[in-house]
Amino acid sequence: MDDISTSTLAIILGVLVLISAFFSSSETGMMALNKYRLRHLVSKNNIPALRVHKLLARPERLIGLILIGNNLVNIAASAIATIIGMRLYGDYGVLLATIGLTVVILIFAEVTPKTLAAWFPEKIAYPASIILTPMLWLFYPFVFGLNSITNAFLKIFNIKPANENGQTLNPDELRTVVNDANSMIPRKHQDMLLSILDLEKVTVEDVMVPRPDILGIDINNDWKVIVKQLNHGQHTRMLLYRTTVDDAVGYVHAKDILRLTSKTQFSKETLLRAARKITFVPEGTPLNNQLLHFQREKYRIALVVDEYGDIIGLITLEDILEEIVGDFTTNQIPGANDDYHKQKDNTYIVEGSANVRDITKELGWKLPVDGPRTINGLILEYLEEIPKPNVSIRLYGYPVDILDVNDNAIKQVRVHVDLYKAKKAKKP
Asked: CA 176, CA 182: separation in Å to the nearest integer?
């Protein structure tokens, strides 16, 4: 070293700092890569991505290589800095070189390159892999020895690597990924993906048509009444029953009705023979399971029964699909909804039978969806009694006027959404 000039040593020191910056940025860039984008590029046979993916397949080897190179460079830089310091300042040069090199390493070989690599991992990792790949082959004996010692030390503490390297996502983490997609996935598509993930949390009784709202045909009625109902039916499938829904016979499809009406002999007997078998599903069945049942059994309508076998509602394939993609039925008036009506003063008149989940999804209200399924049930649970008309309450922050109570049920309420928003805006 005595034969090498101080200026030459300074240049060598600068080169060593740059090499240290390379190793530091490479480590951060490799670890900060989007693993799912990397897998996508690998599936497209992208050469840089394939090279990086091979390095990351054994992360302990990659980290071992980078640490070996980084430590060798930093130790060499420390030795050269000490020599330069002693030449310039004598014995004090050791202390000055230590302090000065620490500052230089931190700024130019650690913080700055690692920050850049965290911001632009692909721009750092892919070019770095060109150098790291042959280096791994060259230093493999040292890397293997280092990993062997490290693994043996970890075994003492019974620490084992995860089989899947922590790359799997649970449903909640996947929801976070979808929400963070922002402009990369349109908002409508994000909502659909999130709805699919939420299917396992939603049961058939959350989206079914409640028993009082089931539209069907009582085959015990006069034949003229039945024909009128068939001609004016608004659904492609009509439930057939005797006297009550509990004695369901089956259902008929609109195309079956058209076929029967084209014949000269159209009667109750021919209608009953054309009826298709109705299926029953228990309450509490998750929508994802019911969707698979619909697909596997090739049917699109079922009656929901409780633990006593009583019919409590009707579920169709369309109900589940609307839970995913939103309401795709056609209203006569765009934006119209029978469950609620917006007033000129920005209040809403809401029917007591309105489904809480539908209201929260369509209007964005913050109401609990894991309890009662209707506005009537939600208010009754909150008050623990049947209220009288013209009573005002605050329901989960929303000022609500009870307008109509009949047959032991709340039929209609008025919701003051603006007052709720104003109160929320005042909170610090």
From this structure: 11
Q: Which CATH number fits domain 340-426: 3.30.70.100, 3.20.20.70, 3.40.30.10, 3.30.465.10?
A: 3.30.465.10
Q: In one letter, which amino acid is 136? A: L
CB of 247 within 8 A of CB of 241?
Answer: yes
The domain locations on the chain are: 6-156, 169-201, 204-324, 340-426
**12 to 69, 76, 79, 105, 336: CA distances (angstroms):** 16, 10, 11, 14, 76
| DSSP-based three-state secondary structure for 282 | strand
**With the CA atoms of 59, 60, 64 and 66 taken in that order, what torsion angle do they form, in degrees rounded to the nearest 10?**
10
Amino acid present at 93: G
DSSP codes joined into one string, 227-257: HHHHHT--SSEEEEEESEEEEEEEEEEHHHH
Burial-class residue 294 by CB neighbours within 10 Å (0-12, 13-18, 19+): buried
- pLDDT tens digits, residue range 98-131? 999 999 999 999 999 999 999 999 999 999 999 9
Question: How distant, in Å, are the alpha carbons of 19, 354, 404, 415 from that of 385?
Answer: 76, 19, 15, 19
3-class DSSP assignment, residue 391: strand
Q: How many CB atoms lie within 10 A of CB 114?
A: 19
Query: Which of 24, 22, 54, 18 is CA-nearest to residue 133?
Result: 54
* Domain spanning 204-324, CATH architecture: Roll (3.10)
Count H helices, E strands: the chain? 19, 12
* Cβ count near 163 (within 10 Å): 7
pLDDT, one tens digit per residue, over 129-172 is: 999 999 999 988 888 888 888 888 888 887 776 554 455 677 77
> What's the average model confidence in pLDDT over 330-349?
71
Distance CA 21, CA 343 (A): 65
* Total-model pTM: 0.63
Q: Are 287 and 207 in contact (CB under 8 A)?
A: yes
